[in-house]
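Technical note accompanying the year-one report. For the benefit of new consortium partners, we illustrate the data format agreed upon in the data management plan: each record pairs a sequence with a structure-token string. No post-processing was applied to the example shown here.
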Amino acid sequence: MKFKKIKNIFFILIFSAMLIWFPVIANAGEGAVKKPSPDEVIKMMTDGNKRFYTGKSSDPHKDAERIALAGKANQGDYAYATVITCSDSRVPVELIFDAGIMDIFVIRVAGNVCDTDEVGSIEYGLAHVNTPLLVVLGHTQCGAVTAVTHSLTGKGSKLEANIPPLVDNIVPAVKKAMEQHKDIKGDAIIPYAIEENVWTSIEDLFMKSPAVRNIVKDGKAKVIGAIYDVGTGKVKWLPLEKTDKILKKVEASTNKATKVYAGE
């Protein structure tokens, strides 16, 4: 009889604990949204871009409810893409993908280059905001790529003191474009240099970030290049296969960074 009484008390205590803690556990995940796969995100962004350039944008996630949610939610439960792109005012990232608040983790810098600050921001986007896709987005008529091209061809003008170190990552891209297309002269090389600059940024990213390399190799995220046409509003996706080749090239390099975490 005594054992039965103790047993009943035990079950009462367990049931009481469940009543107390179950709502807490349930509410902890309230509002969280399951992240789409990298390929699903590419399709979402492709569809959003089409809505944008056809004048059929749905303007999602911009109402008072979304703003209020942003004030209390973790962006890591919602953002589905990290985008590094140029600072150019003609490249409004959320607009061109028909996205809204907490949809895209955006990094902007002249020439969409990947130096320490940008790579650190990308690591945060992929490892902490947990976006399943990184887009390295170049654009037509890029002023940074044009300035570097003109400098290399003797047409450049004086640049303020801090601009050359900002865009020095672009120099190898322009030189490579010139080497690959020796028959193309003058400003006609710029579109080729703009695309090559996207690939250079991806390679610089992989060289500097073992964390990003690991995330991609583990299938947690994909990295894709793209070019936005400022005159049509259309985004051209570059082949994922080339990103894979760049990653394999970097993995074979003895010069790549190897420390994943600070202080290692």
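Partners are asked to follow this layout when depositing records. Confidence is low (pLDDT under 50) at residues 1-7, 9-31.
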